[in-house]
Write a structure and sequence with these properties.
Layout (H helix, E strand, L loop, with lengths): L5 E6 L4 E8 L3 E9 L1 H4 L7 H23 L8 E7 L3 H18 L3 E5 H7 L12 E6 L4 E6 L5 E6 L5 H11 L6 H9 L25 H16 L6 H26 L4 E5 L6 H11 L5 E3 L3 H4 L3 H13 L23
Parallel strand pairs: 1-4, 4-5, 6-9, 9-10
Antiparallel strand pairs: 1-2, 2-3, 6-7, 7-8
The protein binds 5'-O-[(R)-(carboxyoxy)(hydroxy)phosphoryl]adenosine and zinc ion.
């Protein structure tokens, strides 16, 4: 690859349409993100057909805007990276089709990126020096994983959720409290002024010695039942307190499992990634628990935690450097696995 490598990254796996231009996998020249939150708000969750239709309407203007903001021409690019799974099939197809069309017409290498791996690469856009082996907690609306990497792309999944993803539970609790969608940011804000010990919610799988899996369906049911009980009693649910107590129960489990993983593996860097990585309490507590263990905790800025094209361009750059390119039969893979051997 040339010394100066410009990658266009395209992300449409869920409800954000994004395109970005990244230099050498490290420097963001542009990162345009169009959120569909206002379209899905009134449904309390993402409606797949609405999401894919909106991606289709705006993908080309978003790509043009990313190129213009970066101040580069299509002929300056060295590759096109696209998130091709996991995600919503109709949404993924829009990005994959746009990426294939561009790669074909510009005669550029095309590279397929696993969306979850993409989240991890947001950390490479922070300017931090990152050394392998490393650990990463990826926690989003669809995933909760503790990953161990010996090198670029050499991913071992040490822990995963056995049921709901952490972000999904934030969204469901917010929906029950009529706080809108997505739920994470608003619960985060309300929790700041609440008392986390005002309610006691379960912390699942904490007792399983050495185990790094998660389970969040128990806490979800407990919080939903608590909201219902308070309403039946005719009480006004104290939003600050219930959000603080719920958030603490999720953050406690995430942080303790990360500490367990850090003690099992000898690494210098612990990375945080995914939409829930924007959570202020998780960021604070992870640092507080891991830094005394002589571990550097790297946390991307909030705008690089949620879905974006820059993280896909960064991950794509490192895949291209290792010689991977996709052929034009690259397809959307809604259930793409992190550990599957991929050569695209
Ligand atoms: O990574 P992402 O943009 O999309 C997926 O790949 O799922 O993550 C979106 C998730 C949503 O569930 C949203 O509620 C959650 O991230 N989220 C947060 C915060 N900001 C976004 N959760 C907790 N605290 C936040 N500040
Ligand atoms: Zn995501």
């Amino acid at each position: 690859m040339a010394n100066r490598s410009l990658i266009l990254g395209i992300e449409t796996s869920c409800d954000d349409t994004s395109a970005a231009v990244v230099l050498n996998g490290r420097t963001v020249l542009s990162n345009i993100i169009s959120s569909q939150d206002n379209l899905h708000q009134r449904f309390g969750g993402i409606v797949p057909e609405i999401a894919s239709r909106r991606h289709l309407e705006i993908i080309n203007p978003i790509i043009d805007e990313a190129m213009a903001k970066a101040g580069v021409r299509f002929s300056d690019l060295d590759g096109i990276a696209v998130s091709y799974g996991p995600g919503l099939v109709g949404s993924l197809l829009v990005g994959v089709s746009a990426a294939k069309a561009l790669a074909f017409s510009l005669d550029l290498p095309l590279v397929g990126v696993n969306h979850v791996e993409g989240h991890l690469y947001a950390n490479f856009l922070t300017g931090a020096t990152i050394s392998f082996p490393l650990l990463c907690l990826v926690v989003s609306g669809g995933h909760t994983n503790i990953l161990y990497l010996e090198g670029h792309g050499e991913i071992e999944v040490l822990g995963r959720t056995r049921d709901d993803a952490a972000g999904e539970v934030f969204d469901k609790i917010a929906r029950a409290l009529e706080l809108g969608f997505p739920g994470g940011p608003v619960i985060d804000r309300l929790a700041v002024r609440g008392d986390p010990s005002s309610f006691s919610f379960p912390r699942a799988l904490m007792g399983e010695e050495g185990k790094l899996d998660f389970s969040f369906s128990g806490v979800k049911t407990a919080v939903l039942n608590c909201i219902r009980r308070e309403m039946e009693k005719g009480k006004n649910v104290d939003l600050h307190n219930i959000c603080a107590a719920f958030q603490a129960s999720v953050v406690d489990v995430l942080v303790e499992k990360c500490l367990l993983a850090a003690r099992q593996k000898n690494v210098k860097n612990f990375l945080l990634a995914g939409g829930v990585a924007a959570n202020s309490e998780l960021r604070r507590r992870l640092r507080q628990r891991l830094e005394p263990e002589k571990m550097e905790v790297i946390v991307p800025p909030v705008e690089l935690c949620t879905d974006n094209g820059a993280m896909i361009a960064a991950a794509g750059y490192y895949r291209l450097r290792r010689g991977f390119t996709a052929s034009y039969d690259l397809n959307a893979e809604p259930s793409l696995n992190l550990e599957s051997r991929r050569n695209c």
